[in-house]
Amino acid sequence: MLTMLRLGSMFILGLALLVQLAGCQQCVSADTLAPPEVCQYNGTLYAACKMRPSTSLPDGLPKVYGQVLFKQDYPQGKLNVLLRFNGFPTEEDPEPRAVHIHQYGDLSHGCDSTGGHYNPNGVNHPNHPGDFGNYEPEEGKIHALIESEATLFNELSVIGRAVVVHQKMDDLGRGGNEGSLLNGNAGQRLGCCIIGVSPPDLWNMQYKLYTRRLRRN
Fold this sequence. Notes:
Layout: H1 2-27, H2 37-40, E1 44-53, E2 65-73, E3 79-86, E4 97-102, E5 108-111, E6 131-135, E7 141-148, E8 162-166, H3 178-183, E9 189-194, E10 196-198, H4 201-216
Antiparallel strand pairs: 1-2, 1-9, 1-10, 2-3, 3-7, 4-6, 4-8, 8-9
């Protein structure tokens, strides 16, 4: 009887594995590569980026900490991005801060080694897929939920690249000089992080906190 129970359990496990494999084959198309986590999390990919101050930050500039969280449905869902930063001055008239995706996930020289804006299409700023725009801190913090033209999928995936928070406001390409068309004249790089695939837990928790905060306000 015990042997039959074991055989039955093995059969059920094997059947479950076959079902899972079949589901994975359905959720990964032939022309677009998808990470295995897409199947694991029911057709959605999550990523996270732990923001820390640049190691080459000059004295007197704010030290920014926080998270950038990503969620995107496979294969053509819009990329949702949740920004959570703190460490800005708690001034009455806060300066908006620019946030961008940069080309390299290289923090060997602080945020300075992340390269320029991620610009796979070779266009002027602010038309890069990771040009997130400006955010005004409240009580030293930034909390925002946005949709982005960037993607976690295929050859244009931003996984492994960096997110950078800047000292100044992005002029959105209207500054009339070369720097404006490259990076919006956003100034020093205060903090940065590398984007990596993550489980959904962080997104689910922080999204709940974000929506709860919106209801209170």
